[in-house]
Amino acid sequence: MSKIPVGILGATGMVGQMYISLLADHPWFEVRYVAASPRSAGKSYAQAAAGRWHLDNFSSSAPILHSVGEIMVEDANDISKALEARKTGRCDFVFSALEMEKEQIKMLEESYAAAGIPVVSNASAHRWTTDVPMLIAEVNPHHAELITIQRKKRGWDKGFIVVKPNCSIQSYTTPLWALMQKGYEIKRLLAVTLQAVSGAGYPGVSSWDMIDNIVPYIGGEEEKSEQEPLKIFGVINQEGILINAAEPQISAHCNRVPVSSGHTACVSLEFGAKKPSIEEVKKIWTEFRALPQEAHFPTAPECPIIVREEADRPQPRKDRDMDKSMAVIVGRIRPCPVFDLRFAGLSHNTIRGAAGGGVLSAELLKHKGYI
Ligand code: NAP
Fold first, then answer.
1. CA 20 → CA 91, 212, 225, distances in Å?
2. Rounded percentage of the chain residues whose pLDDT exceeds 90
3. pTM of the prediction?
4. Which of 147, 160, 198, 208 has its CA 20 to 30 A from that of 113?
5. DSSP H helical segments within the chain, as ranges?
6. Would strands 263-271 and 186-195 be described as parallel, antiparallel, or unpaired?
7. To test ligand 1's pocket by mutation, which of 9, 33, 37, 350 has the most ligand atoms within 8 angstroms of CB?
8. CA 348, 268, 288, 230 torsion: positive or negative?
9. Is 254 a residue of the active site?
């Protein structure tokens, strides 16, 4: 099978680099087009990324830089370049990993879609646009149906926009969904997140703020953590409109902690009338599988939720890379004296929570015939 040529907008940034790394040996997709700010445009990718490659695996990334390194970086604001690339078979769709003003990203992503280039976005700009699906491939793959409605409404033929949710919610949304799937209503939830510094891009949070410290504030993160799961759990009604779920009611406390990668969430939750035992919860999570596993998507983890039984796990450094860094690792599953159940969840923020989640969404869209 010949690979689908893809572009990365924001290719030089933290998430863009992760896309390049994850797509290096991808069986379906091949990076043939890269774009960033006018500061990087006109340079080869190797030149633009020189001294800015932030991934841990620097030495093993060198060949990746070499293979993508010769591609000329274009200005992401200049859509004519992407259209030219599409014409010459170098860009069928783009991953958007741009960091700009929200309104600018919104308009730019819409321009790509209107020009016939599908956009799989990591940015938050379109997360609350009602006809834009916010996908976690294991949870709401059926929301991809909104693409047909989006195209019709906006008069787009080939283009569309899908987004992936914020990295902070990944550590609990799939575990909640697995329980809901088994008929356990979740009424209320308290989530305290411990979020890694890589979530803020590079250079991100000042080292003065991070060494020997915890910052109990991440702008906008609590609102995202409380509201995004409700869109993901929403249902599409007969008119094709996505109606957000009313529950669970979520209270989030988001903290930046001195961890390089891996967001942890300490969660307490309250069930409806039907309450599972601790053993039942562990069984549901261990056995949970969804479309990405059944259809064997290349980036899908074998086990989307991994249960750790040790008293002191999950831990970011020891557990974040389990199952291609794409699994949610849960542990400390125990009764809660205030609500019903307590657990700690962990997910890799720049992989499952960013580029890996984007690649998995693209695999879902290819599987469903949208790209
Ligand atoms: P980043 O490291 O700051 O990279 C930003 C990218 O955007 C760079 O390629 C940069 O190009 C480009 N850019 C900046 N200004 C531009 C402009 N005016 N025109 C065109 N391109 C421009 O940011 P990041 O951490 O990778 O985050 C990228 C996106 O993913 C953000 O929307 C972020 O909210 C989202 N996200 C991040 C994470 C995470 O864990 N880091 C998780 C989920 C979602 P130059 O290099 O040329 O400046």
1. 14, 33, 27
2. 92
3. 0.96
4. 198
5. 14-22, 45-49, 58-69, 79-87, 102-114, 146-154, 170-181, 207-210, 221-232, 278-287, 291-294, 316-319, 322-325, 356-367
6. antiparallel
7. 37
8. negative
9. no
Whats the size of the chain, residue-wise?
371
How far apart are the two ends of the chain, measured CA to CA in Å?
15
State the CB neighbour count (10 A cutoff) for residue 114: 15
Is residue 61 pLDDT above 70, yes or no? no
CA angle centred on 261, ends 179 and 229, rounded to 5°: 30
Q: Ligand 1 pocket: which of 21, 55, 98 to mutate (most atoms <8 Å of CB)?
A: 98
Is the predicted pLDDT of residue 62 greater than 70, yes or no? no
Whether the pLDDT of residue 38 is over 70: the answer is yes
Centre of ligand 1 to C-alpha 342, Å, is 34
Q: Considering the candidates 54, 126, 143, 263, report the single residue annotated as catalytic.
A: 263
Query: Residues lining ligand 1, judged by CB closer than 6 Å?
Result: 10-16, 36-37, 39-40, 76-77, 97-100, 122-124, 167, 198-199, 201-202, 349-350, 353-354
The CA distances from residue 25 to 3, 64, 188, in Å, are 11, 9, 42
Rounded Cα gap, residues 52 and 300, in angstroms: 28
Question: Token digits for 41?
Answer: 């445009």
**pLDDT over threshold 80, residue 66:** no
Q: Is 263 one of the annotated active-site residues of the chain?
A: yes
Strands 161-163 and 119-121: parallel
Residue bearing the CA closest to ligand 1, atom 20: 37
Burial environment of residue 214 by CB neighbours within 10 A (0 to 12, 13 to 18, 19 or more): exposed
In ligand 1, which atom is closest to the CA atom of 98?
Answer: 7
The whole-angstrom separation of Cα 146 and Cα 156 is 13
DSSP 350-369: TIIIIIHHHHHHHHHHHHTT
- Closest Cα to atom 28 of ligand 1: 97
Which of 33, 47, 81, 99 maximizes ligand 1 atoms within 8 Å of its Cβ, making it the mutation to test the pocket? 99
Nearest alpha carbon to residue 92 among 219, 195, 5, 30: 5
